[in-house]
């Protein structure tokens, strides 16, 4: 065991203190949201909330979950996230595998991909293209323009290049074509990468709200993040008006915190299931340049 000097111990203490501060900066706001959302109206009005509910209540959650618009926005977001992630993985993996194979013009296509990574068209040209293709007020407007992330494509390509070439050669000798090699050999070996980039794409779709603001004019088609913007940022009290409510609604702040928690927890549930693939999938793409 190495003997640590006084300077090493001081540096370890400073690092530990910084990590505790960073962790507290992340956890404390979430605890406050949790506490306010589960607090009763009396506790909130008395401003008697710190980091844990003193008097538990589910009024805010009953109020939100009785609202058809909120439930519909959750379903819309789940649909966009699942379908969008599957489309992202399908297009990104196939294009990345194609660019990992030798063919005429590969470097030109790769340069075009890198060019879009460095220089984007901008909001207005993208909006005009989406409008011209008739995707306004369609959930496909939130999926098709972001089908392939250039960064994920490049890392995915590096991952495919790290797979031994002998596997492809053996499959070609056995008579397999490129499509059969890709779907029956390469993809099964790519589960860590697929899980990692699937998580990246899923989180991006779930948290996306700016594209929904741009392309969705019909409030009934809003995903949860756009609806949250109306509730929290715009503070539109008419956004959530639960049907068949016989009692007075809970305070707006508790409703906002409950909505934030309900919109955050579903995507957090994915992390424990994909954690074992996460670090491995990120590192595999950097094995071979």
From TrEMBL:
This protein's GO CC annotations: plasma membrane
Q: How does it sit in the membrane?
A: Multi-pass membrane protein
Where in or outside the cell it occurs: the entry states:
Cell membrane
Entry-linked Pfam families = BPD_transp_1 (PF00528)
Query: Boundaries of each ABC transmembrane type-1 domain copy?
Result: 74-274
At the top level, the lineage of the source is Bacteria
GO terms under biological process? transmembrane transport
Please classify the protein's predominant subcellular localization into one broad category.
membrane
Keyword list (alphabetical) reads: Cell membrane, Membrane, Transmembrane, Transmembrane helix, Transport
Query: What transmembrane ranges does the database entry give?
Result: 12-34, 70-91, 103-127, 139-160, 181-204, 255-274
Its family remark reads: Belongs to the binding-protein-dependent transport system permease family.
Name the UniProt record assigns to this protein: ABC transporter permease
Give the source species.
Answer: Paenibacillus contaminans
């Amino acid at each position: 065991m190495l003997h640590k000097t006084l300077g090493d111990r001081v540096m370890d203490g400073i690092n530990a203190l910084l990590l505790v501060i960073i962790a507290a900066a992340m956890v404390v706001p979430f605890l406050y949201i949790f506490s306010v959302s589960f607090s009763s109206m009396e506790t909130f009005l008395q401003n008697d909330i710190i980091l844990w509910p003193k008097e538990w209540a589910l009024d805010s959650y009953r109020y939100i979950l009785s609202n058809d618009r909120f439930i519909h926005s959750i379903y819309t977001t789940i649909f966009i996230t699942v379908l969008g992630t599957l489309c992202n993985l399908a297009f990104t993996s196939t294009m990345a595998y194609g660019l990992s194979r030798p063919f005429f013009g590969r470097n030109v296509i790769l340069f075009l991909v890198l060019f879009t990574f460095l220089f984007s068209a901008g909001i207005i040209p993208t909006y005009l293209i989406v409008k011209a293709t008739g995707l306004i007020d369609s959930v496909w407007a939130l999926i098709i323009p972001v089908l392939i992330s250039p960064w994920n494509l490049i890392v995915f390509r590096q991952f495919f290049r790290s797979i031994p070439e002998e596997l492809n050669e053996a499959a070609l000798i056995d008579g397999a074509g490129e499509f059969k090699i890709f779907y029956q050999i390469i993809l099964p070996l790519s589960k860590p990468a697929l899980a990692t980039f699937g998580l990246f794409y899923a989180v991006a779709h779930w948290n996306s709200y700016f594209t929904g603001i741009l392309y969705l004019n019909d409030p009934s088609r809003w995903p949860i993040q756009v609806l949250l913007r109306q509730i929290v940022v715009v503070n539109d009290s008419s956004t959530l008006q639960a049907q068949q409510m016989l009692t007075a609604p809970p305070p707006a702040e508790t409703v906002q915190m409950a909505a934030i928690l309900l919109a955050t927890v579903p995507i957090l549930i994915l992390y424990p299931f994909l954690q074992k693939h996460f670090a491995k999938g990120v590192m595999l793409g950097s094995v071979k340049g």
